[in-house]
Amino acid sequence: MGARLAERAQMPELTDRERFVLQQMATGQSNQEIGFTLRIAESTVKTHVNSILSKLGVGDRTQAAIVALKRGIAKL
Fold it and tell me: What confidence category does residue 6 fall into, taking pLDDT thresholds of 50, 70 and 90?
């Protein structure tokens, strides 16, 4: 429990939109699919994804999905 709290304190908070995009990423949706769901351009989704990767300190979508599952942001 303490490790999770320390982990959260070290990482900047995600916005509500970033959290939603991350949840969709964790389910395997593409940028295009996420954009369609949110009614935003794919380039805007890419901006959100890049921000998420940076804030989580990970290098790709797979690692971001793992962090989302570990932090309870997304569920299988």
Answer: low
